[in-house]
Amino acid sequence: MTELSSRLAQPEDMPALRELMRRAIEELQHGFLTPEQVVASHKVMGIDTQLIKDQTYFLVEQGGTIAGCGGWSWRATLYGGDESVVAREPVPLDPQRDAAKVRAMYTNPEFTRRGIGKLVLSLCEGAARQAGFSRVELMATMAGVPLYKACGYRPVEAIESKPINGVRVPLIRMEKPLGNGD
Predict the structure, then answer these.
(1) Which domains does the chain have, with CATH numbers?
(2) Residue 98 burial class via C-beta count within 10 angstroms: exposed 0-12, middle 13-18, buried 19 and up
(3) Of 27, 21, 169, nearest in space to 86 by CA
(4) Strand pairing report for 154-160 and 100-107
(5) Is 10 helix (H, G, I), strand (E, B) or coil?
(6) Which of 2, 9, 21, 173 could form a disulfide with 57 if both were Cys (CB 3.0 to 4.6 A apart)?
(7) What digits encode the pLDDT tens for the residues 20-41?
(8) How far apart are the first and last CA of the chain?
(9) Which H/E stretch holds residue 172?
(10) d(Cα 69, Cα 58) in Å, to the nearest integer?
(11) What are 5's strand-pairing partners?
């Protein structure tokens, strides 16, 4: 088995990232959401190119294939991609007061249950800690909640997206303190 490697995403990775995200939403949300909610999820989730510009978006690869991706942000936006219906706030956060945001976590459906999500979270948390943040928060999809709980995140608030063609997507805001070696 080829080793996993990680790197920061670059603009030329965008087509592959968009395809991975499309597949992850389509294939991994079933069993957690209704078919209508899965369709609506495409307007709630997705890539935020600001993360790539900020160089805070990681890829994990195996043998040249993207196994997973995710990022963190020092900006106020909690979730939502470039094409989502979610309001975004690119204002900077204060590490002494605010939580860094873990964003746009996706696993390639061919790589589930192999520790990819935990690896991406670890990269994000380490980078946020290095930037001076003492806690992180994220907006979890229902499919992501088990991973995040296993990684020490606790639920803070359950919400639903704005209606998308009459359908709301359930989400859970979660947070985690960052110790010295989490």
Answers:
(1) 4-177 (3.40.630.30)
(2) middle
(3) 169
(4) unpaired
(5) coil
(6) 9
(7) 999 999 999 999 999 999 999 9
(8) 27
(9) strand 170-177
(10) 6
(11) 61
